[in-house]
Amino acid sequence: MSDIAIQVEGVSKLYRLGERQRYKTARESLMRTLSAPVRTIRQLVNTNGRPPQERELWALRDVSFDIRAGEVVGIIGRNGAGKSTLLKLIARITEPTAGRILIRGRVGSLLEVGTGFHPELTGRENVFLNGAILGMRRAEILRKFDQIVAFAELDQFVDTPVKRYSSGMYMRLAFAVAAHLQPEILIVDEVLAVGDAQFQRKCLGKMDEVAGQGRTVLFVSHNMGAIMQMCRRVVMLERGCVKHIGDAQNVVSAYLAESCDGVGEVDLRQWSSRSGDGSLRFESVRLLNSFDVVTTDFSIGDDINVEFVVRKYRRRESLTFAVELATSDGLKLANMIDGDSGFSVPSFTDTCTLRITLSDVRFYPGSYRIGLFVGSPGGNESYDHVDGCLSFNIAGGGRLTSRTLPRTAGLLFLTPRWQSTNTSRAGNALVLQ
User: Fold this and answer.
1) Which of 333, 317, 318, 334 is nearest to 379 (CA)?
2) Tens digits of residue pLDDT in 181-206
3) Coil vs helix vs strand at 46
4) CATH code of 115's domain
5) Exposure b/e, 187-196, CB count within 10 A at least 16 = b
C-alpha cells in the first residue's frame, strides 16, 4: 500500500439546500429578530401551512478508488456529476459526509478561480503564502519564484494585489504556483478553460512535465482530447457515483457514446440557436458511416458522411455552403466550403439534399461538433448558420490506439508520403543534404 498516493474509501457528500443567510451586524440581527413573526406568517401562507423543508443533495455517493504515486488520472462526467466536489474533498477544502480520504504527500490544487489566494495580498505575497501552506521553506520558494512569475507572464503585476487581476491573470498565477512549488500531488480542475488556447497548451505541457517527474496528477476536464493526451487511467462519475474506471481509451469511449445518446440525426426546423436572414434554412442533418448507417461513433481511419437538407424560401441565385468542424470545447478545426473542392451546388427551387464525405479521418480520439452555413459567395451575407448542431465521437481503432499514439500528437494524424533526395554515406553515418 506504500505506493498509493490517494485512497478514496466509501466517500459520500451531502449538501442541504435551503435559504440560509448570514447577518454580520448587530443592527441586521435585531431587524431579523423583530421581523420574525411577519416572516413566519408569510412562510406559512406560501407553503399552505407547512413549514419550509430543506432539500438534500447527495453530490457523491459511496465513491471508492485508489491512485498510485506517479499516476496521471482523469476525472470525467457531465455537469453535476460530482467532479469538482470530489476534488474539493481530496484537496481538503471541505470534509466528506461519510467515508474517508487518505493522502500521502503534499497537495497542490488548482480548482475554481478564487480559491487559494488572499485577494488583498499581492501576487508575490500569495506565492510565498501558498509555499508556506505546502510546508516549504522560504529559500525553497525563492529558488522557484522567478520560474513561477515567468510562467505566469505577470512580471509587471507581481506586486499588485490579486483582487485587481483579471480571471485569466489569476488563473495563470494559480497554475504556475500549483505546478512549480513541487507538490507530490497536483490537482487541476477545468479552470484551464479560462485561459487562451496558447496558455492552455502551455499548461498541458507543464502537467506532462510534472507527470514525467513521477508526481501524481489528478485532472478534471470536459476536453476529451486533453484527457486522452494526459491520462492513462480515467474515472467516470455519473450522478455522484463511479460508473466506469479503467483504461483511458475505454472509459472515454464509453463516456462519449453515452453523452451523445446515439443521436446521429437532428431535426433543425425548430432549432432556435441560428443566425441569418432566413432566405434559406437547414431542415435536418445526419451523420452516416461508410455503410450508410446513422451513427455518432467513428474510429480513426473511418469515413464520415455529413448529409443535410436545406429549403429555399427566397430566390437566391448564387450560394455558398460550408460545413464547420470544431472540437467539443469550440476550437475551430476546419471550414469546408463547397467551392474549395471544385463543387458547385446545382440550382434548385424548393429543397436540396447535400452530402460531404470525410475520408480516412485522422482526428485525435475525442468529441467533435458539426456546424452548417449557407450564404452568398464569399460569405458576406448569411442566409442560415447553425453552429454545433450535431456531435460525434472518434475512438482509437486498428493500429492507431491511445497506446501507440504519441502524447503530443495534437488534433490531427496526417500520413504524408516521405521521400529523400541527394543522400550520401560518410563512413557509417547517413547524411541528408
Assistant:
1) 318
2) 777 888 887 655 555 557 777 777 88
3) helix
4) 3.40.50.300
5) bbbbbbebbe
* Residue 171 contacts residue 147 (beta carbons within 8 Å): no
User: Is 17 inside any structural domain?
Assistant: no
pTM score over 0.85: no
- C-alpha grid cell for residue 250? 475505454
- pLDDT band for 245, please (50, 70, 90 cuts): very high
Burial of 331 (0-12, 13-18, 19+ CB in 10 A): middle
What lies within 8 Å, CB to CB, of 134 at 6+ separation is 106, 108, 181, 183
What is the chain's length?
433
Contact 194, 111 (CB under 8 A): no
User: Hey, how many other C-beta atoms are within 10 angstroms of the C-beta on 76?
Assistant: 28
Residues 274 and 236 grouped into a single domain: no
Compute the distance between CA of residue 328 and CA of residue 369 in angstroms, rounded to an integer. 6
- The secondary structure of the chain in percent helix, strand, coil, rounded to multiples of 5, reads 30, 35, 35
What is the extent of the structural domain holding 178?
A: 59-258
Name the pairing type of β-strands 185-188 and 233-238.
unpaired
Cell numbers found for residue 234: 480515467
